[in-house]
Design a protein that fits this description.
The protein is mainly α. Helices cover 82% and strands 0% of the residues.
């Protein structure tokens, strides 16, 4: 008997989204910060101090924001499950009819839909309603701590890359060096994340690089403006 070789990647959605968002934000925000302060006329030591401070603050902000937002999602999921559990206790027959109706809408005929609903209700009534009525599953369930840690770690990993360029490049070459290197980092991130997620690689690559370039351009313009004012 041949093994089913089809591969799906939806089990990676939760951590992949947080990791890609964190790394992308780490590269873009740190590189933009560097480009902005360089454009404003800051010296090499100030640029380095600013970028390291941005790494620390950004990682903590990403972790806190991701934890709070994902925990809110988890609270909503729990409330929905509690409400569904109460409805199952109050009117199990009605809930079974509702589940059968869902299967009819998905293409089963009425007798088969009722049979499937009856079997699933007997096996795990709340699980069946959570999956087929509410759209909840173990794959998509919110995990606040996992998302927070993934966001903080990936932000720090992304932010370190422009900082390494700052350490290596001379003062006169900081802006072009950080800009070009960061665009290369972003393009690589877009390609890797698309590859892991099974999406088209070129689309992910240019999308991430384009918005990174736009962010750095805007920040550089602000740096030039405020540096001239100062």
């Amino acid at each position: 008997m041949r093994r089913h070789a089809e591969r799906h990647r939806n089990d990676r959605i939760g951590w992949l989204r947080a990791a890609v968002l964190g790394a992308n934000d780490g590269i873009v925000s740190t590189a933009s910060l560097v480009v902005g302060v360089v454009a404003a006329g800051a010296d090499h030591r100030t640029v380095l101090l600013t970028s390291v401070s941005g790494l620390i603050a950004g990682a903590m902000s990403m972790a806190a924001g991701e934890f709070v937002s994902v925990h809110s999602q988890k609270d909503t999921e729990r409330a929905d499950l509690a409400r569904e559990g109460a409805e199952l206790m109050r009117d199990p027959a009605g809930e079974q009819r509702e589940l059968a109706g869902i299967y009819v809408q998905r293409g089963l005929d009425q007798p088969l839909a009722e049979q499937v609903a009856s079997k699933l209700m007997a096996h795990d009534a709340l699980g069946a309603h959570a999956r087929d009525e509410l759209g909840l599953s173990e794959t998509t369930a919110a995990n606040p701590m996992q998302a927070a840690l993934a966001s903080a770690a990936s932000f720090a990993a992304g932010a370190v890359l422009p900082i390494i360029v700052v350490l290596i490049a001379p003062q006169a070459q900081l802006m072009p060096a950080v800009t070009l290197a960061s665009l290369a980092f972003l393009a690589g991130l877009g390609a890797v994340s698309a590859r892991i997620g099974g999406a088209p690689i070129w689309a992910g690559t240019w999308r991430v690089a384009f918005w990174g370039a736009a962010a750095m351009a805007v920040t550089a313009g602000a740096g030039v403006l405020f540096g001239a004012v100062a």
